[in-house]
Amino acid sequence: MLPEFFDTALIVKDENYLLFSEDERLRQISSFEFGVQGTWMQPTLQVLNDKNLISKQKFDDAMVTLASSNMEHISINASTILESGRKSKWLPTFPFTRVVKRLGNNQSELISSLSVAVQFLFELENEIVIPERHEGLVVSLLANLTFERNRRTTLKKLRQIVGNRFRLLPIQERQIINIINTWEATQSIIW
């Protein structure tokens, strides 16, 4: 590590501050070598949100910024995806596409990712989104959920979770299942 990093750790120690850094290695070295406590952005934001020290809107906005960055180990929820949809004007573009990409990699557990995705779809029903854009968001979500996963297994589990979550909204359930089925059929042709 560069001397500047050690200078930072020493200053934080001398002033008895908390080291606030996204660099996990810097936090670990600062802790082991200098006894400096550190944290990173997401848990800090979560504490601020839990204690109502920042608004839900500011929290969601910050989480979209983090989730659409190249940082790793960012946990997202339906509110983060919904806010990214708003920011992208309900189009499958940045930051929406970058945020939902986090649901599809091998590092995210399947059922957890599907549950977050279905909760997003449920909350999306409360938004005013034209049907074409709504479908575009769902298709983008499907592409990301199935990336690096067995498509058939993933979509089967997704349909089950959609059925459970949308049990009291049968029209919306049918619309989402139809989008899933149509998308899956087109993927079979493409691949």
Based on helices, strands and strand pairing, what is the structural class? mainly alpha
Compute the separation of the termini in Å.
46 Å
**Rg estimate, integer Å:** 20 Å
Query: How much strand content do the residues show?
Result: under 5%
- The number of distinct β-strands equals 2
Helix content: 55-70%
Number of helices: 10
The SSE string, one letter per element, is: HEHEHHHHHHHH
State the shape: elongated
Low-pLDDT residue intervals, each spanning 5 or more residues:
none
Order of neighbouring strands in the sheet with most strands: 1-2
Largest sheet composition: 2 strands, parallel
Give the topology.
Blueprint: H1 3-15, E1 19-20, H2 24-34, E2 38-39, H3 41-50, H4 56-67, H5 78-87, H6 96-101, H7 110-124, H8 131-145, H9 151-165, H10 170-190
Parallel strand pairs: 1-2
Helix pairs in contact: 1-2, 3-4, 4-5, 5-7, 7-8, 7-9, 8-10, 9-10
What does this protein look like?
This protein is mostly helical. It has a domain at 76-190. Helix content is 67%, strand content 2%. The protein has ten helices and two strands. It has helices at residues 3-15, 24-34, 41-50, 56-67, 78-87, 96-101, 110-124, 131-145, 151-165, 170-190; strands spanning 19-20, 38-39. Strands 1-2 form a two-stranded parallel ribbon. α2 (24-34) links the parallel β1 (19-20) and β2. α4 crosses α5, α7 packs antiparallel against α8 (131-145) and α8 (131-145) crosses α10. The longest helix has 21 residues, at 170-190. It is elongated. The chain starts with a helix and ends with a helix. The mean pLDDT is 91.
